[in-house]
Q: What sequence folds into this?
């Protein structure tokens, strides 16, 4: 099977070319991966991980879409109170020549304020965002194996994986080139080491209580550490 694309040359002439489709397991260069991906507008999510193509299955509602929406809501509320950071949902990230994932969510400092990423002229993220979140089925997912190592090597400072079927959330912090797992405190809270005030009530989030999750986030946003961080980025912090 090939994907047929056409290009208008002028005077009514059309040049027709065939582009092979992306297939799971293909080993491609990043340029070839992007060429085939662009030629398949019906495809919603494909990733290049260590030079291998991964294509997502149709997305389930309660196993993926709802958890992802809650994560984006949590991060979006942090962005609203922290001018200078940005949230992206399902954006392609060009990490290196062999790795072009499409994380479920990411949080990064705007490049003009000294963040790790840059936005390319064709509107892609290049280099590693400071924080990445993936929604995974279980520990068997490649999010906690191959992709974890890619994010670690690329310099993603914090990596969160919501294992829906396991009813668990993993939060890794990059220290000395290695990911160290965080443990929730007695309240079930975990706190970002890179983004001051980004607090997560894991118990509330796992039971689907977004309102309680956001109440705890508001506690973090009210701390002096968050106010100082927002001020450094040029915002008001509130």
A:
């Amino acid at each position: 099977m090939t994907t047929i694309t056409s290009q208008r040359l002028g005077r009514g002439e059309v040049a027709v070319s065939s582009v092979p489709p992306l297939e799971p397991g293909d080993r491609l260069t990043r340029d070839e991966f992007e060429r085939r991906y662009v030629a398949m507008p019906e495809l919603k999510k494909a990733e290049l991980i260590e030079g291998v193509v991964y294509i997502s299955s149709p997305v389930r509602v309660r196993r993926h879409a709802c958890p992802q929406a809650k994560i984006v809501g949590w991060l979006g509320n942090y962005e609203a109170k922290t001018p200078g950071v940005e949230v992206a949902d399902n954006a392609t990230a060009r990490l290196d020549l062999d790795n072009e994932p499409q994380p479920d969510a990411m949080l990064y400092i705007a490049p003009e304020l000294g963040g790790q990423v840059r936005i390319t002229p064709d509107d892609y993220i290049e280099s590693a965002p400071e924080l990445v979140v993936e929604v995974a089925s279980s520990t068997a997912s490649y999010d906690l194996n191959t992709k974890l190592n890619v994010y670690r090597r690329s310099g993603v400072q914090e990596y969160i994986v919501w294992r829906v079927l396991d009813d668990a959330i993993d939060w890794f912090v990059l220290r000395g080139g290695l990911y160290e797992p965080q443990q929730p405190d007695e309240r079930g809270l975990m706190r970002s080491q890179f983004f001051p005030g980004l607090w997560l009530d894991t118990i509330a989030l796992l039971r689907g209580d977004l309102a309680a999750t956001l109440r705890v986030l508001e506690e973090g946003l009210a701390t002096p550490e968050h106010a100082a961080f927002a001020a450094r980025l040029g915002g008001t912090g509130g």
Notes: The CA atoms of residues 123 and 194 lie 25 Å apart. The helical segments are 30-38, 61-80, 146-154, 202-206, 210-221, 224-232.
